[in-house]
Structure formats: structure tokens, C-alpha cells
Predict the 3D structure of the following.
Amino acid sequence: MSTDLDTRAPARGPAASIHEPSPGARRRRTTSRGMAALMGVAMVLAATPLALILWQVAVQSGAALGPSLHGIGSFLTQVEPLSYRETGGGYAHGIVGTLYMTGVAAVMVIPLGIAAAVFLVDHGRGAFAKLVRLFTDVMTGVPSIFVGLAVYAVLVTTLGFGTFVGAVALAIIMLPIVVRTSEEMLHLVPPDLRAASLALGARQWQTTLKVVLPAAAPGMITGSMLAVARAAGETAPLILTAFGARTIVTALQDGRGQADVGILMADGMSQPFDAGLERAWAGGLMLVVIVLALTVIARLINRRSQI
Amino acid sequence: MSITTDPRPPDPATSGLRGRGRARLGDPLFRWLTIVAAASVLVILGVMMGRTTLEAIPIFQAEGIVGFLTGDLWSTGQSRSEVTGQYGALPFIYGTVKVSLIAVALAVPIAVAVALFINEVAPRWLRKPMAYLTDTLAMVPSIVIAIVAIFWFVPNVTDPIAQWVVASPLGEIPLFQGPAQRLSYWSAGLMLAIMILPIITAVTRETFAKTPVDERLAAYAMGATRWEVMRTVIVPRGVPGLVGGTMLGVGRALGETIVVAFTIGSSQRMGSSLFFGGDSITAVIFNTYATASPEAIWGLLALGVTLFVMTTIVNVAARLIVQRSGRVTGDASV
């Protein structure tokens, strides 16, 4: 026994340090570091597209907005010239249309979504609630172009194109987002708060409206803003429902169509003319700014939430 | 006398606390209101599905469901009332599946690495900002990604890679055969990979984070390195989440419209190579809708129904897998 130990010990040599207890330790540590570095590379790779997109949108839209950004005013207040060759003009009609449709959609869907979330939280154990929850999740995965097609088949065939029809399509896209985020937030409201309200003699609906919903409000506002941000950036369903317009449309539903920044961009970038393309880039910058601002504000509100 | 005129003396337990009749209706009314709201989710989905299918029935009748799904010629007629063209959806289904597979193949390894990096390697203070960074990509409107894709990514990233692969010995394999076109399955697939990366990362990260702390600490205590802990403890634990997240990503990829419509190349040739132009369900709807005849609209609706069925199957399966380990949260998941 002792001879065994004697012959092995010199072959291995004394341990270099306490960090090298076995001969494979160095190799294993190198592998670990190598893999960590590889993951770091993947992280950089994953972050690059966002940086590239923001950089390109910022640089390319400079041509339409002018070197000192003096073009912003006219871009926001004028409509696009009739020809894609002409420079100048802007996306005022698209901005009006996008905000109009997103606003109408939000008004329609946020109360509905919150009510559905209240149901899921108050009566969330039954088979019906489970079904609703599963289909809400399924609905987040429904392709937006299919929503456009369906709204086309249901509404456009009778009402024609327009603001309201476009808003319905956006509302359907927003609905599952509002339901899911609201439900998550309502679940976070402490049960004690609810119990205290009921113990004071408030009815169930009074408890929900006056105690639970206000407590969950910051989180639900966050969710609703994320939904609005998603809707504001949608284009595919609007091509089939809002269709597009070349002037500012104020009618709720005139059957002729409503403009949208995304549609204008899609048109502008399909044309071979520089002026139209430059406006499309500027429109892209605007969409990015609107959507990212909404996202960031939504997160800030959520961070200040008490629950 | 007063006792006889009032047969029921006011009982404090019923009169004082139960309130007047109208207020008592509040609760049932409120409950029904919320039930109707919840049911609206099912109703909306049902109406969308039912009506679209109904409108597409002439196509399914003319081609047969199998004929529609396996036909490889899409040649629309100009009729307003009957089906005169040929409607075969195979080139579009092929393209949709192909770009989604490319996207998943590119996105999943990176998503796993990013999830491990954020959860295990990065310093603690950097974790939240980096998670936000990956989630933010999911919020960029797809039309913006599309414009950057065709004017920057395709000429500067996807096309050089395609040319290089075609020129290399790999170009002999049918999958990488040349000549490489700029707008191709590959271009669309790469852009889709970028777009589905956030959701796969978010789901994967969440399930990796749920690894029991005891198991991780036990592995570390036995002398495992960080990589060994990830490989033997964290990743095996996260496989269901990874599968579910990947399928959610596939669902996203199947339905993404604008980026694919602008980068896939609009060709119905069904080439074997990644670098040939192709077409997808969403792209053909987007690209041909504005000039479609009534008959062709039915065809597009039939394609839409096909797409809906595909994505719903994938999504339900994904949610069922993910749901077993809790729901997905975060911006990328909505």
C-alpha cells in the first residue's frame, strides 16, 4: 500500500495550488471559461441586430428630415405628395390614421380585456376559465395577417375599408395582451386587501372596482401600453382593413380607407424613387420612437407600482 | 293596531344589512358582465375562424382539401362568382415551413447561449438591462425590420454569406446550391431568426432560472465548473421550456408577414436550395391582396385558414408544454 502511494506521488508532482486539486482541473476550467466567452459572443450577436436597426433607421431617415432635422415639422404636418418622386411632404395623414385607429382600438379593447381578466381572477378555477385562458394564450399566437383576413371577411365585405374596421383588427391583436397582463397584475393584489374590503361590508363588485382594480392599476396600465405599442407598429392586418389613404381621414367609417404609417412605409419602400424611400425611412424612425417610448414609459410605470 | 298593519316588523339582519333590492343586483350583474367579456375571447376566435372558412369554401370545394394542400400550381382566375383558376398551396406551405425551420435552426442555439449568459455568467447588475435589451427587439415594428432588412441586412449580411457558401465546397450539396439570389428563403429565414430570438430567449431563460438552487449548489460543491453545472444541471432541467419556447418561436415565424414578404423573393418554384427565391403563405397574401380578383381573395382566405390551423396546432402544443412549468411572462411573450 505504501509503495503504491510512493510511486504515484512523484508522477503527479505536488499540487500547484489549492485550485488545482486534480490533473484535469486546468482543462475543465479552460473549457468553462471558453464556453462562457462563447456565450458572451452570442450575447453580443443577439444585441447587434437591435443596434444595427436603430443605427440604420436613424442614419437613413436623416435624408428626409434634413441635416439639422428641420424637416421634422413638415414631416409631421404635411401629407405625402401625389408622386413618390417629389421630395418634401410628410406622413401627417399616416400619423393621424395610426393614432386614430390605435386610440379607437384601445377604447374598445382595454375595458373588455380588463373585465375578462377580472373574470379569470375571480372565477379562475372552472373549466370555462381554463378554456378562456388557453385560448387567450392561443390568440397571442394568431398571425396578425390572419386577423386582417378574418376582419376583412366579417366586416370589410359589408362596411368597406376604414378607421373602425382597422381599429377592430388592432383591437383583436391587443385583446389577449391586455387580458394576460391584467390577469397577472390582478393576481398580485394581496388577498388581505380583498378580505379587508369584504369584511367592511363592501360587495364583491365594489371590492373589485374600488379596491382591487386601483391596486393593480399601474401594472394594468403597463400591460395596456405594451398592447398599444404592439398595435401601433402593426401593418399587415391594416393593409387588409384600413387599406390606406392619401389624405387625412377624420371619418370613423367612410368605407374608403384610412392611412397608416406602416402602409405608407410599405408603399414608399416598394417604389424605385428616392424621395418616397426617404420618407419611408423617416416614418420608420417615427414608429420606432413611438413604440420604444411607449415600452420604456410602460416599464417605468410598472417599476413604481406598489405591489 | 300598528302590529297588524305591518305584518313583518323590520328585522335588522335582513333590512339593514342586505340593502335595497336594486343594489343587490350589482353582484350578479357584474359577474355576468365579466363572463361575457371572457366569453368574447372565444367568440372572437370562433367567428374569425368560422367566417374565414365559410368564405373560402368555394376553393376547398373546387380543389378538395387534399388537392388544395398538395397542389403546386397557384394560378388565379379573374371571376367574380366562380372558381376558374387553379389553387395549389404547396409552394407557400413549403416556403413557410422552410423559412421557419431556418429561423429556428439559427435562433435556438443563440437563444440558449444568451439565456445561459444572462442567467449564469453575466454580473448580477447587468442581468436586468440585458434581459430588457433582448426583449426590446421584440417590440420593434416588423415594417421597420423589413426596411432595414432589404436595404442593409440583405446586401451586407445575407447575400455575402450566401455567395460565400455557394462558392465553397458546400455549394455542391442541393441544400446550398447556387446561384444564390439576394431575396431567398435564407434571407427571410435569417431575418425571422432575429425576430423570434427574443421569445425563445425569454421562455428559455425563465425555465433555466427555475432550476432548484439546491441542485446547482450541490453540483458546485462537488467541484463542478460553471460550464459543467450548466451542462449537467441547468440545461437538462430546462429542456421542456426550451422545446416550448422554440415552438412559440415557430408559431411566430409561421405568421410573420411583412419581413418575409419583402425578403423571400416571391417565386413559386420550390427550389431545394436555401438560396433560391421562394414564397410563403403570409407573403403571398400580403403581396397579391391589393390586386386580387374576388376569386383570388377566396384563395387567399383559404391560405389564411391553412396558416391559422398550422399556427394554432403549434401554439397549443407549445403552451401545453410550457404551461406545465408555469406561464410565460415578460414583454417578449405577448
In short: The radius of gyration of chain A is 28 Å.
